[in-house]
Amino acid sequence: MAESYLIPAAPLVVEEEIKRSRFISLLFHCTSENDMKLALTNCRRDYPGANHYCYAFVAGAPDDLVAIGSSDDGEPAGSAGRPMLASLQGANIGEIGAIVIRYFGGTKLGVGGLVRAYSSGIKQGLLSLQTELKLLRYPAKLICDYHQLKDVEYFLDRCEAVILDRVFTDKVMLHFAIAKGYRQQLQQELATLSQGKMTLTLDD
Q1: Which of 196, 158, 192 has the alpha carbon at shortest distance from 178?
Q2: Which of 12, 58, 68, 204 has its CA 20 to 30 A from that of 95?
């Protein structure tokens, strides 16, 4: 499994008119089916009266075959949701959702025409979509003395770790998440700081 992948950094909208039908394609960050449901609710509010609100999403890594879904929303089976999902899966971008809103213009497109129409805006959008790299981080913890805390937090920041919790007793326990690629670097810096007495404990 890849230890990092691209995700959308900002939403994007592409609007087209195809044989008098209006197609509005939205691409956005989507980490779950609930994210998609919320986005659909917002689309129905922002674009009222449309004939179809078709969607597709890949809520995990780009090659995740479980956290995915799609809907034709009343269009002929296989003419909207599945081709939209195929476009997303071919982009090698994770945690991405797409909704295509259609205002019917009176001209039927046929199944082949619908497949092309529902894929078109998504393919255009993917070419200009802003993305950022997501590092997969894993839980870990360490214990340090109070006077070491500032240095430890500096090292964690350099290793792009995310601090989840700090527990203060006679010492400080830090719970955090860190990418596998930074573990060795952090171990070395902690060992140098504490003359080998401080170690990283991995929860996985």
Answers
A1: 158
A2: 204
